Each structure stands twice: as structure tokens, then as C-alpha cells.
Amino acid sequence: MSSVREKIKSPSGDLGATNGDPLLNWNRLYVLVLLFNVVLVVLFYLLGHFVNHHGA
Amino acid sequence: MSVLDWIVLIGSTAFIVIFGIWKTRKNRNIDTFLLGNHTTRWWTIGLSVMATQASAITFLSTPGQAYSEGMGFVQFYFGLPIAMVIICIVFIPRYFQMKVFTVYEFLEHRFGLPTRLLAAFLFLIQRGLGASITIFAPAIIFSAILGWNLHLTICVIGCVVAFYTFIGGTTAVSVTHKMQMGIMIGGIITAFAVILSYLPAGIGFTEALHIAGASGRLNTVDFSLNMNNRYTFWSGITGGTFLALAYFGTDQSQAQRYLTGQSIKQSRLGLLFNGVFKVPMQFLILLTGLMVYVFYQFHAPPLFFNTQVEREMLASSASGEYIQLQQQWKTEHDTKQILYNDLLLKENTHIDQTALDQSITHQKEIRNKTKKLIETTLPDAESNDRDYLFIRFILDYLPKGIIGLLISMILAAGMSSTASELNALASTTTIDFYKRLIRKDASEKHFVYASKAFVLLWAVIAICFAYYGTLFENLIQFVNIVGSIFYGTVLGIFLSAFFLKYITGWSVFIAALIAQTIVLLFFLKSDIGFLWYNVIGCSTVMIFSLIIELILRLIRKKAIL
């Protein structure tokens, strides 16, 4: 795990700490953004599926 | 267009330009002119990144895409959020740590001057052509549909954008982007709402979705592994991520938007903003196109949406045949109306699917015949009218005032992309070539003047190229091909810089030259789809730089022994 963490760290060895906000958990934010898009994809899929099977 | 439309169009465009210039009139040094003195907040960055990507073609073509092929195009953007996260983690900290003006400066720190100049040069070629197409594309459509003079439209769009970019630099671009995005979002929401209100009584949003679904246009996500399908979930996730990485991570026109950020945090939040709102925005634009499709199920659509071509056909020797096809088209539309009657009268919620499929097939046949007739009669005319669909609908059906707002939306999109491009082209020419090679020790003021001169120079080049754009058979495709030829190599250089730690400058430089040659050979000698050039260019740079580095190390080792 530590090697993966090292890789994603910036060259200065921080994850935005230089200019960042200690209250912001970047990893959590990235996951939230990706999850939001996963939810969108699922909704798009369900929309097509629902209309095709229960609609016209 | 009515007087009210002209007032809305000129008023909104003039307000944006004047406000942008007034807000940024005091730009005195190079840091302020090119990087906005690092004062930009995340929401401005996010809107600016979105405005840069959204060109006039986005608002002209995307609804037409949904009209003719359905919602599947949205899958093309599925990789974008992944790319945003990767850029936030890998690209942004490195750019900020080195305090670069252009992303190509980073390459000099990592690989030396030749690699920096090579990447910057490749960017200038492709983005210079890109700037001309973002001016040319809306101009040709406006000239065909509205009857505006093509050359005058190109000149006005180019000069207005060059003017505020020249005066206010990158801050003016960001300030105007915020308002342009406001117009774009407001415009598309208004269009969506107005189209919904125009649907016949008894057809609400849900019924409209059913009608679109019955025509197979709501199959948004396609999980099939068929490589022949251009837009699938898998191509979106892989190819989309790849393209978005190259575009947002290594293209100065996008990078400059987030390099102006107040801090790493602000830049990252700006890109994540794009990662959250891009897919819904594209979905909304496509959905608007889909509603136009539903609207045209109840109102006879024109046989061909390009008014100019339609006029030329009616004046040509094939006019008799064309009128006959128009009549067939109208009859087929009336047949389809009968199928929707039950739905309108609320007697049945289902449509006779077999009859509908038959009607759709007949309409397709008539359209194909029309296209062939146009190709034979007018060999120079564009037989694809998809880009003209939305603008024709706006002009034919929407009320006064709204027409002005929506044309203003399309112009705002065209201007926002062009402004970013001119700004980035001027930055790269000034920082990577002029300051680095010609005048290293000149004053801040000198470089501001140089940047402004380069904004004008690139604007003139873009306008000239757009001016003579009609000389090329298919300019849009031509520019896309040129872009793809260079994107892969540049992305390969950047990814080697980030992930191949022990690679040195000469290895990657030679590998980039080899990759570029290979891509050019594929372009000249093979029929492979041009999107694959990106993959070939990027992987060739990375693989060859590893091999060359290994060989160089072996040679050095032997020399020492």
C-alpha cells in the first residue's frame, strides 16, 4: 500500500498539503467524483432499459 | 432573425466582451497576462475548462447526433472523469511544483530543451489548425442557414475574440468564459424547456421518452464488445480516458486554464468540477436533440436540413426528382402520425412497433436516396446535414428573442474555445520559443507586448486558414486527423516523463521522432482509423524510449569498462 501511496504523491512528497486544506480528503473526493459518474452510467442504463421494456 | 433577436445576440456578446476587457484592463506583467497572477478560484477554473472544450460544434452537432443516432454518444465522455482524477493526482502537482507557464517547460526540466521544443512545436501545428476550425465551423453553418456572409462572419468572430484576448490576456479569457458558460447552460435549458412545451397535448416528458425509446434512440449504454460500434461503454472508458488525458493533461489550451489556479487545491477542484458536470451537460444537450426528434414526429421535418443545399437542389435540373422525394417524405410522415394517434388519445400506451420500424426504414431509404441525389447533382455540396438540424429547428420554430439567445449561445461556445486556443498559442510561442531561444533577458513589459503580438499573429493565421477553409474537401476531418497524428506522440512524452523514471532526454526525443514517423507512415500507407494514431503514437514513444535507454546504457557501460 505504501508504494502505491508513494506513487500518487506529488514530487514534493505531499498530496496538496503545500497549498491544500487539511480538511479536504482528496482520495475521498476522487472516489466520490468517480462514484457519482458510476451512478450516472447506471441511471442511463436503467433509463434505456426501462423505456425499452416497459414503454412503447 | 427579428430585431429582438439581433438585440439579444449583439447585446449579450458585447456585454461579455466589454465586461471581460474592463475587468482585466490593468494586466501589466507576464505572469498576470499569461497566468492571471495565480488568482483564479476553482469554480472559474471549472467553468473555463468546460467552456474551452465546448465549441460551437458541440451545440450544433450534438443535438443532431442524438436526433439521428440516439443517446449513445454520451459514452464517449465516460472516460473523462477518470482522466480528471489522474491529472489531479499526477499532472497538476508536477506542473505547480515547477511553476511552469506552459506544460512544455516541464519537459525541459525532465528531458532537456530538444524534447520541450519538439512537444511545443507539435502543439502549435495542431492547435493553430484547431483555432481556425473553431472559427470556421460555426461561420459556415451560419452562412448557409442565416445567409450571413461567410468571410465577414469568420472575420467578425476572429477579430472580436482576438481583441479581448489581446487586451486582457488569460484573465479576460477566464472572466468571459464564466459568462459564456452561463449563456450556454441557460440557452440549452431554455431550448429544452421550450421544445417540451411545443410537444402536442397528451405528450409529456415520459411519453416523449417512450417515443424516443420505440425508435431505439434511448439505448444510452452499450456493453457489447463489438469493435465496429463507435460508441460503447468499453470504448468510452478506454479510448475516452486516453483522449481526455492527452487533451486536458498535455494540451496547453486546457492546461493554461488550470495553471492560473490560486493553488494546487483550486486547480484540482476546478478539474473535479469538470469531472462532475461534463457528463450531465453532454447528456442534457443530447436529450435536447432527442426532444427535437420527438417534436418532429408530430411536425413534418424538412427532407434536408441545410437550407442552402435545399434551395440549390430546387433550382437544379434534378428539382423534379427532389420534389418527388419531398412528397414521399411527407406521405411517410403522415403514415407515422396514424401510429401515434392511440398514444395521443391516451387509448393505448404502446405503439405498433412493427409498423413503426417499417416506417423508420422507409424514411431512412428516402433520406439515403436524397443524399445520393444531392451527391450526384451538387458534387461540391455537403450531403451530411446533421450539423444543420438544430439551428434549422431553432430558426423555424422557436419564438423571437429565444432565437437570439440560442444563436448567442452557439457564438459564445465558438468564441470561448477560440479565445483559449489563441491564448495558449501565444503563451507557447512566447515562453517556449521567443523567451527561451531569442530574448532571454528582456523586461516583463517586453514579454507582455510579445505575447500580445503573438495573440494577434495567431488570430491572423487562424482567420486566414478559416478564410480559405472552403478550399479543403472536408476541413473538420482534416483537422481531426492532423490532431490525432500529433496527440499520441505528445502524450507518450509526458507519460514517459511521469512514469518511466530512469528514461533520459535523448532516449525519449529519439523515440518521439520514431513514433511520429511511424504514425505518419500509418497515415500515408494504411487505412487504419485515425483515432488509433493516438494509441500507436503514445505506446511507440514509451516502448522505444525504454529500448533506446537500455541500448544507451549498455553502450555507456561498455565504454567505461
Characterization of this structure:
The complex is a heterodimer of chains A (about 55) and B (about 550). Helix content of chain A is about 65%, strand content about 0%. Chain A is mainly alpha-helical and about 55 residues long. Chain A has 2 helices and no strands. Chain A starts with a helix and ends with a helix. Chain A has helices at about 1-10, 25-55. Chain B has about 550 residues and is mainly α. Helices cover about 80% and strands about 0% of the residues of chain B. Chain B has 21 helices and no strands. Chain B has helices at about 5-25, 30-35, 40-55, 55-70, 80-95, 105-110, 115-145, 150-200, 205-215, 235-250, 250-260, 265-300, 305-315, 320-345, 355-375, 385-395, 400-440, 445-465, 475-500, 505-525, 530-560. In chain B, helix 3 (about 40-55) packs across helix 17 (about 400-440) and helix 7 (about 115-145) runs antiparallel to helix 17. The longest helix of chain B has about 50 residues, at about 150-200. Chain B is globular. The chains are: A mainly alpha (about 55), B mainly alpha (about 550). Chains A and B meet through helix 2 of A and helix 5, helix 9 and helix 12 of B.
| Strand segment count of chain B | 0
Number of strands of chain A: 0
Which structural class do the helices and strands of chain B define? mainly alpha
Total helices of chain B: the number is 21
Q: Over all CA atoms, what is the radius of gyration of chain A?
A: 19 Å
- State the share of residues found in helices of chain B, binned by percent: over 70%
Range of strand content of chain A: under 5%
Reported for the largest beta sheet of chain A, the result is: none
- Gross morphology of chain B is globular
Q: Which chains share the greatest interface?
A: A-B, 29 and 43 residues
In terms of topology, how is this protein built?
The complex is a heterodimer of chains A (56) and B (561).
Chain A: H1 2-8, H2 26-54
Chain B: H1 3-23, H2 30-35, H3 42-53, H4 56-69, H5 80-97, H6 103-111, H7 113-146, H8 150-198, H9 205-214, H10 233-250, H11 252-259, H12 264-298, H13 307-315, H14 319-344, H15 353-377, H16 386-397, H17 402-438, H18 444-467, H19 475-499, H20 505-525, H21 532-560
